[in-house]
Amino acid sequence: MYQHHNWQGALLDFPVSKVVCVGSNYANHIKEMGSATPEEPVLFIKPETALCDIRQPLVLPEGWGRCTTKWSWRC
């Protein structure tokens, strides 16, 4: 099973089975995207395989189409 490391390289001592995310939670970003503010939180999940080591290069498989080099990190 995949195990994630913290930013200092230490192995996290709990297994990750999924990542629960909250979307549409930044008022400025909602406005910037021209979207309506939802009445309820927007939740979505990502599999454990969506996690990557921040010290390693991000590799996208060939054939995935157009990709941008502009990234937005939010925690």
From TrEMBL:
Pfam family, one: FAA_hydrolase
Keywords: Metal-binding
Entry-linked InterPro entries: Fumarylacetoacetase-like_C, Fumarylacetoacetase_C_sf
Keyword Metal-binding appears in the UniProt entry: yes
Domain of life: Bacteria
SUPFAM superfamilies per UniProt: FAH
GO molecular function, one term: acetylpyruvate hydrolase activity
Domain Fumarylacetoacetase-like C-terminal: start-end pairs: 18-63
Name of protein: 2-keto-4-pentenoate hydratase/2-oxohepta-3-ene-1,7-dioic acid hydratase (Catechol pathway)
